[in-house]
Structures are given as C-alpha cells and as structure tokens.
Design goal:
Number of domains of chain B: 2
Number of helices of chain A: 7
Strand content of chain B: 25-35%
Oligomer: heterodimer
Strand content of chain A: 25-35%
Largest sheet of chain B: 9 strands, mixed
Largest interface: A-B, 83 and 94 residues
Largest sheet of chain A: 7 strands, parallel
Distance between the termini of chain B: 50 Å
Number of helices of chain B: 9
Strand order of the largest sheet of chain A: 7-11-6-1-4-5-12
CATH architecture of chain A: 3-Layer(aba) Sandwich
Helix content of chain B: 25-40%
C-alpha cells in the first residue's frame, strides 16, 4: 500500500512566536521544524508499510523554502520520497487555501487515486485541526480522525478514538483519510543510516502551476478570513508565593476563600 | 433581523452548557435559531427557547448519529442555503471544528476556530477574539467571504436567559451516500466520574509528574471544590491518567475561573492549554518551576501534604 502523509513546517514552540507587522501573518523567520504532531503520522505510515512488506510513504508539505527541513526529517525517519509545494503566491493562505493546494498535491502524487492519506491531529502553530476534514471534503474521501489506534486491512481502515464520554470504534472503506493523535505510537528518532539514506531520496518541488491551481485562489488576498489585529498579551503578574512550612494547604484554602471560590 | 444558526451540542437531547453560551452570543449578531440534529429535540426545546432561540430547526435523522461529521456539515449547508443566516456558531470542540471545516468548503465560506469572544464589528459583521501561541497573543479576526462560520470555545460567555418562542420546525434534509462513509461501529461509554466536564468546568485541578502516579490527593481536592480533574502530558504519557483529561497543546484547552496545577512544572506544552484561566494556583516542590511565573498564588511544597490539608480546610470552610 502506498501512503501519503501531509506534514507542516511550523515555528518552534520553544521560540518567541509572533506575527509580521506588515500583513498580520505568522512570522516564519523564527526557527522552524516538522510539526511534532506530524511525526506520529509519519511513524504510523512507516509501521503500516513495514508490516505489509511493500508500499511507499510519500510526505507532502506546502510551505516556504525552509519547509524542506520538515521533509528532510520525515525522510530521515524512513519516508521514501517527498513533495514540496512551494510558491510565493501561497504565502498567507488560510486553512481553506492550504487544503486546496494539499488536495491537488495529493492527487498529483498519487495519479489521482490515493489509497491512504495520513495527517497529524492538528498543527502546533495554528492548532485549528481543520485541514484533515477540509482535505477529506476536497478529495471526496471518508474522514476518520483522531485515531489513537489504526488498523488497515481487507480494504478498510478501523480506528479507535478516545473521546470525552466514550471510546469509539470507527470504520471506513479505503481509500480514506485518517488523522492520528499523539497517543498512537512513539515516533522513532532518525538513525545514522536513516540520515545518510535521506540525502539520496527524491524530493520533488512543485509550483502552483504544476498543480493547476490558480494563484488567485490562494494566498493572503484570497483567504476567506482575515486577521484584523493582533496584540501581545501582557505577561501575567506573578502573585503571592508561599513556602510550605506546615500550613501551605491552609494558606491555599484561605486564598481560595478570599477569592470567593468556596 | 437576520437569523444566526447555532449548532446544538447535545447527547440525545441532553444539552451541554456550550449551547446556551452560543445562543447568548448569537443574540449579539441577530436572531438565534437552534439547529438540533438527532433525537431528543422535545427535551431540549425549553432550553433553546429560554436562551433566545426564535426557531428550532430539528433534523431527526438516524444517519447523523451513526456517521461522523460529514452528515452534520451537509445539514448545515442546506440550512445556510435556506435561511441565508448572518453567521453560523458551532461549539469549538474536535467534532464541531471538523463539521465547520467541511461546511466551510461546501458553503464557500470562511471559518474561524477557538474564538473566545464574538461580537458585531463596526460594519455589523461578526468579529472574533482568539488567544494564540499558547496564550501569548490575542488576535482579532473576521470572515471575509461567504457566511461567517465561527467555532466558539466553551466557557467563553456567561449565559443569560432571554426567552423567545423557540418554535420547532422540522426540516427535511438529504444526507448523501458519500457522507455516510465513516461509521461508528462500537461505542464504549467511559465510566462516569460524577465530575464536571473538563472544558466546561468553572474549576479545574490538574496533576502532573509530581504525583508520581498517585492522583488521589488531586482528585480529593478537586471533589472538595466541585472541580474537574486534568492531567499534564507527562502524567498521561506515563499512563497515570486518561488522554481525554490531558490539558495542553495536544489535549484540551481550558479557561476556567480557577486552575490549580499540582506537581506540574509548566512547560509551554501545558501552558498552551491553561494560560487563559482567570485565576491560576500552583503547588510544586521545585521553587524554580516555570509554572510559578503564571500564578496568582503558589505554594512551594509537597503536593502530598499541601493538597490533603487544603482539602480538609476547604471542606471545613464550606461546612
């Protein structure tokens, strides 16, 4: 089975993430990396292909030049090939625009017939968690999301989803789109061999024209939403800190009482 | 005045608190109409009317309950077509956001998730507030194309009654075969804890690595306060508490009135899920723990002595 994994290059959450004054988009100048939640999707794809003993994992990203780093990491983990959709006109796209480009890229990468598309549950920057659903809608695929367990076989996917009130089993026929949570596996670290091998793996770079996407349909100008303003939240003022010398708990209750929580 | 569609969040007619919050917010934008998909509309109707629903659109379709997301999106797309609403408000939980996502593509409309406030902007169209990058920025946003589809986080508004007719209108919709692709074949209900829902709770008490796997002091303190119980990623990854209770970037984002972090260091991953809480309290042995930078009140000490003492004291004060 051939699997396509969609991944995102995101600003490192440990760095000072911010917006660009010029157009209110996310500042991509800070250090970026493969979105941590996408590693679970890459890992799961590798496990499926390894267990089946055949098939290839293709990682696809939409992003600026630096997004090649995210693909490199996935190739080092063991993905077979990568597709980088890169085009000036994509800058500032919202989830609607991004999902359009991703859908076209998935179609082109699979000659129009994807078998299984995997994604993480959300990115770690925008954190909307909507691209998997949009992608499924655009590709006309069943959407099987938030998998904490995934089984593929007999032309079907079966997942377990741990919700708030129930643990559900969800089934769909292939081809399908599945998003996975961080509970599904333990992503591998690239081995030295993997790092060396990644250097020889094919990475294709496609433009919007290659995908037949009109530049007017994506990017900041075509976004269906707009950030009107952004403001840094004032840091929280540190309140009172007490050291427990036998009545820390009582002091805590006193604070809660004074704040009318009791 | 234009209608505002509010997708009800319910289980068999038992409404979750978010629905009344959405109806309250919807009144700022127009006349709310509740959209009830699935059984139990009779039970829920009174609440819809109480919180200002002029109409209640009822779609009692078995397929909507057995299949994921796609049928609900189709129902809403047909209702947008029929009612040309000023906006559609949807609860910002995992399912709600996915319904909104598919609806956005179907209806050619922009969508916003995780709004913590919605109001009519200067031109009368909805404007939202979101808290991003682990709560370090506040963003004001608008939908510029189509019908604004806005997912609002629970606990974003205090509910206010404003009784209206809540006239029930049964709606005939068609759910395509394509929407019936992902089917729920089994559902094992989780054991009820009797505690409030994490994202809806006014008070949340969370435990982390510092519990060493023993959540009993955390749970007992939570129960004395009538609070929900949360857990850090470290505690969930260690298998000490279920993933559905995880607070943080890859779990739930909560903004209760009071958040208590016990034995949690306060890494960025955790902050992303709780930094917008109104009041923050922490108990941690390590006085250098970054969580203390955020707190209104902090106790440097062992949670195994501090929490039980606080529990006893709270119970005493509450009588």
């Amino acid at each position: 089975m051939n699997i396509v994994v969609c991944v995102k290059y995101v600003p490192d959450a440990q760095s000072d993430r911010t917006f660009q004054e010029s157009d209110n988009t996310v500042d991509r100048a800070v250090d970026g990396l493969l979105s941590e939640l996408d590693e679970y999707a890459v890992e799961e794809a590798l496990k499926i292909v390894e267990a089946a003993g055949d098939g290839e994992v293709t990682v696809v990203t939409v992003g600026p030049e630096a997004a090649a780093d995210a693909l490199k990491k996935a190739l080092q983990m063991g993905a077979h090939k990568a597709v980088h959709v890169q085009d000036e006109a994509i800058h500032g796209s919202d989830a609607v625009g991004t999902s359009l480009v991703l859908a076209k890229a998935v179609e082109k990468a699979t000659d129009g017939s994807p078998e299984l598309v995997l994604t993480g549950m959300s990115s770690t920057d925008g954190v909307m968690g909507v691209v998997p659903a949009m992608l499924a809608e655009r590709l006309g695929l069943p959407q099987v999301t938030y998998a904490s367990e995934l089984t593929v076989g007999d032309g079907r996917v079966t997942i377990r989803r741990d919700g708030d009130v129930a643990s559900e089993t969800i089934e769909a026929a292939l081809p399908a789109l599945v998003s996975v949570t961080d509970q599904i596996n333990e992503p591998r670290y690239p081995s030295f061999k993997g790092i060396m091998a990644a250097k020889k793996k094919p990475v294709e770079t496609w433009s919007l024209a290659d995908l037949g996407v009109d530049a007017g349909d994506v990017g900041l100008g075509a976004a269906w939403t707009s950030v009107v303003a952004f403001a840094k939240r004032p840091p929280r003022e540190q309140g009172q800190i007490v050291t427990d010398e036998g009545e820390g708990g009582a002091k805590l209750a006193e604070f809660l009482s004074a704040q009318k929580f009791l | 005045m234009a209608e505002v569609l509010v997708l009800a969040d319910h289980a068999g007619g038992r409404l979750r608190k978010a629905t009344a919050e959405l109806l309250t917010l919807a009144r700022r934008l127009g006349e709310p109409s509740a959209v009830h998909i699935g059984p139990g509309a009779e039970t829920a109707q009174k609440t819809y009317a109480k919180y200002g629903a002029h109409k209640v659109y009822v779609v009692d379709d078995a397929d909507a309950a057995t299949y994921l997301v796609a049928p609900q999106a189709e129902v809403l797309a047909q209702l947008i077509e029929k009612t040309s609403p000023a906006a559609v408000l949807i609860p910002s939980n995992a399912a709600g956001k996915e319904i909104a996502a598919r609806l956005a593509i179907k209806a050619g409309s922009g969508m916003i998730t995780d709004a913590v406030d919605v109001r009519a902007g200067e031109d009368g169209t909805p404007e939202t507030t979101q808290s991003v990058f682990a709560g370090s920025y506040t963003v004001t946003a608008k939908v510029t194309t189509g019908t604004p589809i806005i997912c609002v986080k629970p606990n974003s508004a205090s509910i206010e009654a404003a009784p209206e007719a809540g006239a029930v209108e049964a709606v005939e919709v068609s759910v395509s075969d394509a929407a019936k692709a992902a089917r729920i074949t089994d559902s094992q209900p989780k054991k009820a804890t009797g505690r409030p829902e994490l994202t809806e709770a006014a008070i949340v008490v969370s435990g982390g690595r510092g519990t060493g796997g023993d959540f009993s002091p955390v749970e007992e303190f939570a129960d004395s306060l009538g609070a929900a119980v949360g857990a850090s990623r470290a505690a969930v990854d260690a298998g000490w508490y279920p993933h559905s209770n995880q607070v943080g970037q890859t779990g739930k984002q909560v903004s209760p009135q009071l958040y208590v972090a016990a034995g949690i260091s306060g890494a960025i991953q955790h902050r992303a899920g709780m930094q917008t809480s109104k009041t923050i309290v922490a108990v941690n042995k390590d006085e250098e723990a970054p969580i203390f930078e955020l707190v209104d009140f902090g106790v440097v000490g062992d949670l195994f002595s501090v929490l039980p003492q606080a529990t006893t004291e709270v119970k005493k004060r509450k009588g």
